[in-house]
Amino acid sequence: MAHQYPGPPPEQPPGQPGQNPYAAPEGGRPAEAGYGYPQGGRPGEPGYGYPQAAPPPPAPGFPPGTPPPPGGFPGQQPQVGGMALSLGDIAVSGDTIMTPAGPMPLRGAVWTATDMSRTEEKIPAHAVVLAIVFFFFCLLGLLFLLMKERTTTGFVQVTVNSQGRHHSTMIPVQSREQVMFVLNQVNYARSLSV
Questions:
Q1: Among 7-11, 77-81, 86-90, 171-175, whose mean pLDDT is lowest?
Q2: Beta bridge partners of residue 160, listed in sequence order
Q3: How does DSSP classify residue 120?
Q4: Concatenated DSSP letters for 149-191?
Q5: In which order are the strands placed within the sheet that holds 102-105?
């Protein structure tokens, strides 16, 4: 089988029906708005659904069109973007706490964390078997009974109150490290609320 090309066979002259659809137009510049470009847009122009850059506001004391000084304007607070932290279905983003109950202001929020988990300590089954087997061979087998296995189950309840609104969530935990992580996240949220 011969080589297959996406366009017309090489022996066909350009400009005929069946011309290569991927070839550049005769003028050498890209085609006007059409397939591949946003509706109503031209190459190089943003179209519908694409973010459009807004011109920066004129700086006080600077002529219009002058870019702001590096580091922002004097007295301007930096904008905090993105999510700072997430605790269950509570998210802190910028200066807002987002919950299923609705947004709440971060400033002045009261955070409460309650550890509702429990840690159990027991002797694992393999330690009992090893203690029995080695008891008959040497009396040191009883040392296997000192082996302990810790399991943590339960939840950490996180509650936030802000401007008369209240939301509470339960975060499941399976280890003491996860409990400490959630409590540290709540402490960080408290520091953001000041």
A1: 77-81
A2: 111, 167
A3: E
A4: EEEEEEEEEEEEEETTEEEEEEEE-SSHHHHHHHHHHHHHHHH
A5: 83-87, 90-93, 96-99, 102-105
CA 123-124-130 angle, 5° bins: 100
* 45 backbone dihedrals φ, ψ, rounded to 5°: -105, 140
Distance, in Å, from the CA atom of 108 to the CA atom of 194, rounded to the nearest integer, reads 6
Sign of the alpha-carbon dihedral angle for 136, 140, 145, 149: negative
Per-residue pLDDT of 152-167, as tens digits, reads 999 999 999 998 899 9
Whole-model pTM: value is 0.52
Q: Distance from CA of residue 9 to its chain's centroid?
A: 51
Per the CB < 8 A criterion, the answer to whether 152 and 174 are in contact is yes
